[in-house]
Specification:
The chain is an alpha/beta fold. The chain is built from 15 helices and seven strands.
């Protein structure tokens, strides 16, 4: 671990709101499904002197930093390299005395960590030129460059439109296919330049034209949306009675899935509206939680002034009944 990595600035989002929302003062075992650089985990441990924490992350570099920043007391904290969507299997491998009849709280911060964004070689950002990677777990899976090379024009356009909500997706996909015929697209700068030219964006822009395309590729590379609804149900299964689930999202696609999942788990029908008189519920929704946030909690103006990356964050909470 070099000095540059160790000094990555880390500003976790809505720390106070998360600590309050999880009710950590009651103690017990808490699970940080996306421990990242340890900001939320440290706040949970600090606020709950008798509490224990299981931290999960798919990024081995992040876990290495978290190990240095968090208390080294093995009786209070355990860190696991893995994908949080396998939460049931991960918790099944933890000490029985830690889990009991369920954990007291679970947190998932679905944003990209400062480590991933700020390290150019990870390929998440177009701010500097680097290999077009984007994997949260750099030890497995396809890179963004490999996905761009593999998909045909229509598949690329659909990916960029569905995951990036980019109205110019077809122009971008057409330009990518044309450029890759010359040589593989392997760097962030080359892809960003292709997007800018495809959208005919010149001069100053408030939001970089490649932002939505990079978001779409990152979501695809890391399979961020698939299984999120099922994971939410699994997470509730892992909670004890009155245990709480907190999820922080950073774009509308994630938030829509979390909102719908909470509605289903609270017993509200999520069936699409049917013809008049034929709208019988078939989704099988049963009440398993109480929703604690009818509207999502958002960062304060003071927080967004200090941390621009927090401005799109939304926190939703529910409690198992």
């Amino acid at each position: 671990m070099n000095q540059e990595i160790e000094e990555v600035e880390h500003l976790p989002v809505m720390v106070g709101e998360v600590v309050d929302g999880l009710d950590v003062l009651t103690g017990g075992t808490f699970v940080d499904c996306t421990v990242g650089l340890g900001g939320h985990s440290k706040a949970i441990l600090d606020a709950s002197p008798d509490g224990k924490l299981i931290g999960i992350d798919r990024d081995p570099d992040a876990l290495e930093i978290a190990r240095k920043r968090l208390p080294s007391d093995a009786s209070r904290i355990r860190l696991v390299h893995g994908n949080f969507k396998g939460i049931k299997e991960i918790l099944a491998g933890q000490p029985v005395e830690w889990i009991g009849e369920g954990v007291s709280g679970i947190l998932a911060d679905l944003g990209v960590s400062s480590l991933q964004l700020d390290r150019a070689e990870r390929g998440f950002s177009f701010q500097s030129d680097a290999s077009l990677d984007m994997r949260m777990d750099p030890t497995s899976g396809e890179t963004a460059a490999e996905i761009i090379e593999r998909l045909d024009e229509r598949e690329l356009a659909d990916l960029i439109f569905n995951y990036g909500q980019e109205p110019g997706s077809r122009r971008i996909a057409r330009a990518i296919v044309k450029e890759r015929e010359k040589s593989p697209i392997e760097t962030t700068k080359r892809l960003a330049d292709i997007v800018v030219r495809a959208l005919h964006k010149k001069g100053y822009w408030r939001v970089h034209p490649a932002t939505k395309t990079f978001q779409a590729l990152r979501i695809a590379v890391n399979d961020e949306l698939n299984g999120l609804e099922a994971w939410t149900s699994d997470a509730v299964d892992c909670l004890k009675k009155s245990g709480r689930l907190a999820i922080i999202t950073f774009h509308s696609l994630e938030d829509r899935i979390v909102k719908r999942s909470f509605q289903f788990l609270s017993g509200s029908c999520i069936c699409p509206p049917g013809p008049k008189g034929l709208g019988a519920c078939v989704c099988g929704a049963t009440k398993r939680v109480n929703i604690l946030t009818r509207r999502p909690i958002v960062p304060s103006a003071d927080e967004t002034a200090k941390n621009a990356r927090a401005r799109s964050a939304k926190l939703r909470l529910c409690e198992k009944i």
